[in-house]
Amino acid sequence: MISTSQPQSRFRPYPRYFRPLVQYGPMLPSGAVPLAGGPGWFTHVEVISRTEPSRIAAADAVPSRMLTCLSAPRAPIAGIMMDEPRVMGILNVTPDSFSDGGDHNKAASASAHGVAMVEAGADIIDVGGESTRPCALEVPMEAEIARVEPAIASLSPRTKAVISIDTRKTAVAEVAVSAGAGIVNDVSGFTFDPTLARFCAHQHLAVCIMHSPDTPDKMQDQTDYAHLLLDIYDFLGHRIAQLEDVGIPKARMIIDPGIGFGKTATQNLAILRNLSIFHGHGVPLLVGASRKGFIRRYGGAEDPKSRMAGSLSVGIGAVAQGAQILRVHDVAETKQAVKLWSAVHQGVADDT
């Protein structure tokens, strides 16, 4: 069970936090600092504290250690360079996921859809056998394995893309990795199963650490935060430190602030609006907002499958704040949107 108290670790929060005010363009002013080694840069930051009003300061006011975390290029993840936005395609092999439950819960259709997403431009395929939508109950380990193992075993030989297993359980991860997965994506931030982090360390796996205040069946009852952004930031910092302690280097970590997991619609917007703060951890940032309920609330799309436009809008907003990975259902459309956004903001090599 996830503990709602802060995990104990050697992580010590800064008294102040720094959110880069990200900009793009080929003409960099004096004092501009690159963001995470990517095309974005910043000259100023928002300085945020739990005890003082926020203020704007020049980048040279950021402590050197934090400035390094904000600016240093991110290490490749499972062989994938983090120098441009990457797309993680969602492959749910479940009967009850909120958007596509039942669409791909047979090995053949799952494999075919995974291949199609890779052909559309996905860099990673994230395979999940347990719905983590709000109010979802835990799926027995045996049932989760029965869903994901044949799907990954069928997909792995057909693609060179990296396969990620979306699970909270060591036993499921063991089977998935044997079948071909190279990343473990844990929505509990490696708090649900105490043995999963050590397994990932021993197998030299890349990991994605997500923030969620509780299990899916209870998380929407846990939306009270002392300070939304800073509580999430500190949770992720504690988890990074604890995973380092069991042998997973930061060079194999991704973080995810957990859009829709124990957050209200308004809180989701606040996280998306302030995403760049999370670059302070010095690891790639993943955003998974595709087709989620807050898009229905603000975009008026009742059917999850009709939320592509809203998902693209949110995804491009995340890329504009330097997010390295977008976890999406609509791969081809997301790739096209990212390419056009990049062409506008970074230019193209020629007009051919």
Describe this entry's structure for a reader.
The chain is α/β, with parallel strands linked by helices. It folds into 2 domains: 55 residues, no CATH class; 261 residues, Dihydropteroate synthase-like (TIM Barrel, Alpha-Beta Barrel), CATH 3.20.20.20. The chain has 10 helices and 13 strands. α2 packs across α3 and α9 runs parallel beside α10. The longest helix is centred in the last third of the chain and has 18 residues. The N terminus is likely disordered.
Number of helices: 10
Secondary-structure-based class equals alpha/beta
User: So what's the overall shape?
Assistant: globular
The CATH H-level superfamily of the largest domain is: Dihydropteroate synthase-like
Order of strands across the main sheet: 11-10-9-8-7-6-13-12
Number of strands: 13
Question: What characteristics describe this protein?
Answer:
352 residues, 2 domains, three-stranded antiparallel sheet, 10 helices, 13 strands
Brief write-up:
This protein has 352 residues and is an alpha/beta fold. The chain contains ten helices and 13 strands. It has two domains: 17-71, no CATH class; 86-346, Alpha-Beta Barrel (TIM Barrel).
SSE layout:
Blueprint: E1 17-20, E2 33-34, E3 41-42, E4 44-48, E5 55-58, H1 64-71, E6 86-92, H2 107-119, E7 124-128, H3 141-155, E8 162-166, H4 170-179, E9 183-186, H5 196-202, E10 206-210, H6 228-245, E11 253-256, H7 265-273, E12 286-287, H8 293-299, H9 308-320, E13 325-328, H10 331-346
Parallel strand pairs: 6-7, 6-13, 7-8, 8-9, 9-10, 10-11, 12-13
Antiparallel strand pairs: 1-4, 2-3, 4-5
Helix pairs in contact: 2-3, 3-4, 7-8, 9-10
